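Notes, p. 3: input format for complexes.
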Amino acid sequence: MRRTGLVADERFLRHDTGPTHPERPDRLRAISAALAEGGLVDELVRIPVEPASMHWIETVHHPAYIERLRQACADGRRFIDVADSAICPETFEIALLAAGGSLAAVDAVMQGRINNAFCALRPPGHHAEHDRSMGFCMFNNTAIAAQFLRQQHGLEKVFILDWDVHHGNGTQHTFEHDPHVFYCSIHEDPQYCYPGTGFAWEAGHGESRGTTLNLPLAPHTGDNEVRMAFEQSVVPAIRTYAPDFILISAGYDAHQDDPLATLDWTDAAYDWIDRRTLALAQEFCDGRIVTLLEGGYNLDVLGRCVRAHVELLLRGEGLHVGETQFGAAPDWREAAKDASSESIWWW
Ligand SMILES: [Zn+2]
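Output follows (347 residues plus zinc ion):
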């Protein structure tokens, strides 16, 4: 049995986005209920959360943006920068807490108190840029955690796997000049999907060329194509990079039942990616994984898939992915010749 940490703080519920916003407190209530129903809560190590210090926030964000967010919340404004980034008077403090939660989790893993962790955070982070909010995101929790691993713990190679249906523009832009942090994202084709970045040709700059990997998927891409993309591109990337730590920006909005995008993954896709990623983490970095919640707006899907993910983090059972998980593995070379494979245009 592994020791798995959980960052879940009811103060995250106080980030009030209004009555109709998809990124709402009920998302965390759904996760909490699913973990309780699965009998998992007592087995998890609760990680206490404190606000991140300005030092760590400023490793990713410009001080002027941080101050602008603080002031906007203090002034009682209802959004910052873009209309979908809803805020309330407490948002600034809660965003500091969310970033602090990500730091506490990675620190606990590095200190050996836990093997891995799941962080049920709000607000999410992967769209947040150096100097502005985007797409419901205030501070980039995952990017800040990666900077912490680099600067506090001296890790040389941090791998970020982002499987939210939307490209994590903020995370990519933070690290596209930094070969010490590999950013890999699987998402819906930016021609059709927010935020309009994450094309395959975005691959990093200068000496970090090759440590950004974008895998855009055409609308309605389903489980088998995702599996092929992962096997063809993500697995070799992780094997070649041989990371010291894996951070997962976990969104559950690529699911076929999610209202915000049009990919057609089922629970089985998440299960397969979970098992594959955990097995690779075991192989390369002693199982060091911290998963940070990004999107996912169907509450049933969110609860089910997070529970399944946490169960795997905790028990680590069956990490071997057998053919029976998904049926026979498709032959991607044959599939590529087939007209239906046009859905994976990045080949
Ligand atoms: Zn998303």
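Strands lie at 4-7, 45-46, 79-80, 82-86, 116-119, 158-162, 181-188, 212-217, 245-250, 289-293.
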